Amino acid sequence: MLRHYLQFNDCSRSETEYLFARARWIKDRLRQGQPHHPLQGKTLAMIFEKASTRTRVSFETGMGQLGGQVLCLSKNDIQMARGETVEDTARVLSRMVDVVMIRTFAQSMVETFAAHSRAPVINGLTNEFHPCQVLADIYTFLEHRGPITGKTVVWIGDPNNVFYTWLQAAALLDFKVHLSSPAGYPVDEARVPAAERSRLETFADPFDATRGAALVTTDVWTSMGFEAENEQRRRAFQHWQVNAALMAHAAPDAVFMHCLPAHRGEEVTDEVIDGPQSLVWDEAENRMHAQKALLEFLLVGEVKTP
Ligand code: CP
Ligand code: NVA
Fold this sequence. Notes:
Blueprint: H1 13-31, E1 43-48, H2 54-65, E2 69-74, H3 86-96, E3 99-103, H4 107-115, E4 121-123, H5 131-145, E5 152-156, H6 161-173, E6 176-180, H7 194-197, E7 200-203, H8 206-210, E8 215-218, H9 230-236, H10 244-247, E9 255-258, H11 270-273, H12 280-300
Parallel strand pairs: 1-2, 1-3, 3-4, 5-6, 5-8, 6-7, 8-9
């Protein structure tokens, strides 16, 4: 059956737990220098309508390590920029390649592409969601602190694409999300189904939100595509910064994560991002291991991990 990964809950809880276990095995195998080439002869096409460092490098390197090859298509390389429809692009590309990753603006674009694709489609970030990021983030938490079920994750700042993906993950894997965002930047209740609402608690004060949290996370004040609001957001978010004083309110063994790229001195201080509680470099590396598990799952299915 053709499967896509467009939102975090496109995989069930047990499939997501399989991906974590498989990522662990794939990562260990790479570290041991053992080749693992289940995707030999397969091609991944990537379409980028926004900039990327981690997503591009992790997918490109990961697909190569699995024995496959990669085509990287930026917006202006392809006829979509000159008006070829998303539907027609999906029909054509998916007759030649085996899997497609897309980074774009509207979630509806990846949904439309997937509806007309013969190949699995992976969301590599839209304005609405970033499922590969949260998959790697929770895998990273698991490596350092064990299962996330029952824990509290605090999100400081903009309730953006990564935040809404955390909410989907909270409903799927049964943990709590605390949010503190400035007035004028509330959670959009229309985007939060009841199963996610019951996992979410919102706080006006970032310090109250952080009390007792096992994982403190944040993201830039202005996401890609919203640059026109930069100055206004810089003023609104200035007190929503993860700094040492805020971290001191979290659980004593709390960890800090950031999907990166970070704007140091804005949403996070150097002291925190470079400090002992920060997992940001493992988190970035784990994009590759988690996405290798995902690519293998979408193309080959579940494999018994020895
Ligand atoms: N976190 C993340 O997706 O990074 P890039 O924008 O560099 O791909
Ligand atoms: N929320 C950020 C994440 C970047 C990886 C953005 O969409 O720009």
